[in-house]
Structures are given as structure tokens and as C-alpha cells.
């Protein structure tokens, strides 16, 4: 299955919600009831209030003085929605990680952050697999010392894909692990350091301060590091992902986003809502369990997969 097919399949639930709402205009036009149904569907898909209002406004403007749309008119409406999506998403289409690494310093340091259960460890491991497949020398750093399972999970991934991992015992100081990870990277001539951190509630001040400490250690030992602060978000939580992004960005200066589990939700429009408000580059989206399902975010492909019929 090709990458676009994987993306299209992964966004099935969200697409069915959005397309279904637009199909209600066929033969009816933007009567108040139809518009209300569309508005509710777009909000339920977590496209965000501003995007929804813009889409509804354009639908009303296009239909003003015209007969209710048939099938051909419905396709024009889909095009209208696509254009609105692209206006927001294209400026936030982040440069792929591979390209950042290729033009970045050595070692290139990526710090993955986020709340519990969003898929940070898996995302970091899949990135390491991709980078190694592209001829790079990645090093994994298990800085999630709160969970022994996280340390072991990263070690299993490292063994599976044939890369080295730096780890301490459970309960160790995460900053000490990061310090040793950078030293190992320099000593072993690693090109990329991928740091997996513990999940933490974005509202917990002491845990956010720990992330700031990790950043300070990185900057001290490797000027300019971290070169990427990748916030991993679970798309299934909808608008809560937006509040997470907002608070992590304020705390540690997020430079890129990875949205996981888009295949398990009808709320995939959250990508649009986050891009609309925070303007943080969206680098990666996860639409399945396989390594190939972690894809670079491309605005046009995302919009097409969100709107094209199955």
C-alpha cells in the first residue's frame, strides 16, 4: 500500500464525518438546518471554531442566489473547503526531519516531549529506523526514567533496528542520562541523538521544570541543542491536544509537532485547529502501527485524504 493510500485509509473516520456533512447540501442548498448540521460535523471533527466559521461563511457566499447544488455543485463545495484547509495548513507544513538532520549540525539533537500515552517512545524509535534506513547513524537516549517499561521498550526497538541506546536504571536523573547520551554521541560519531522523555501532564509545574533542566544541560554540552523539540500529540483527544500544545510551547519552545493515532479517531481535524492557532510546523502524522505509517506531513495530501470519497 502506498503512502497516500495509507493516509487516506487512516483518515477514514474523519473523512466520513466531513464528507457526510457536505453531502447534506445536495438538492437542499445552505438552508439553516443543513448549515447547522455541517457546522456541527466540522466542529465534531475538531477543525476548530475559526476554520469552521470560515468554511460556513464561504459556503453561504458561494450559494447565495444560486439553486441548491447537485452532485457537480457538491464537488465545487468540496473544492471550496479544500482551499480553506490549504490556506491554513500549507504555511505550517514542516520541513521533514530527515532534511533538518541533513543540513543540521553534528550531532543533531531531537528532544521528544508530550503527555503520557501519546506514543513518544514508538515515534522516536520509528524515526531512528527511518534515519538509519536513510544512511544516518542515530543514537537513542532513554530519558524516561520513571517507567522501567519505557526504558525496556526503547532497548527492544534499538536491538530490532540495530542502533545503540544509552540508558540508566529506573529512577535515575533524566538530565544525567541526557548528559551521558551526548557524550556517547560524540565518542561514537553519531549523527543524530533522539531523546525519549517521560510523559508528563502539561499542568504539572515541577515536571515541566525538569524538561527545562534537560534543555539547559543539552545547551551547555552542545551549543544550539536541542535542534528540534518535537511535541508528540494524540489526535484522539481532540481539542485537549490544542491546550497541550499551547502549554508545552510556552514551557519549552516546541519547534515541531507529531500527531499520532489519526487512524483511530474521527477528530483528525485537530491538525487544522493547531495549525490555525499556534503556527507550529507539523512534521509528522501517524496513521497506523507500522513504521511506514509514521509519515511526513504534507498539507495537500492531508487535505485530499480528508475530503476525497473512499
Overview of the molecule:
- 54% of the residues lie in helices and 14% in strands.
- The chain is an alpha/beta fold and 310 residues long.
- The chain has an 8-stranded mixed beta sheet with strand order 3-2-4-1-5-6-7-8, with helices on both faces.
- Helix 12 links the parallel strand 6 (256-260) and strand 7.
- The longest helix is centred in the first third of the chain and has 19 residues, at 71-89.
Low-confidence stretches: none
Radius of gyration: 21 Å
Q: Report strand %.
A: 5-15%
Largest sheet report: 8 strands, mixed
User: What order do the helices and strands follow?
Assistant: HHHHHHEHEHEHEHEHEHEEH
Describe the global form: elongated
Helical content band: 40-55%
The number of helical runs is 13
Class from secondary-structure proportions: alpha/beta
Please give the order of strands in the largest beta sheet.
3-2-4-1-5-6-7-8
SS elements, strand count: 8
List the topology elements.
Layout: H1 3-10, H2 12-23, H3 32-44, H4 49-63, H5 71-89, H6 97-103, E1 108-113, H7 120-133, E2 138-143, H8 148-161, E3 164-167, H9 174-188, E4 192-197, H10 205-221, E5 228-234, H11 239-252, E6 256-260, H12 270-278, E7 282-286, E8 294-296, H13 299-307
Helix pairs in contact: 1-13, 2-3, 3-4, 4-5, 5-13, 7-8, 9-10, 11-12
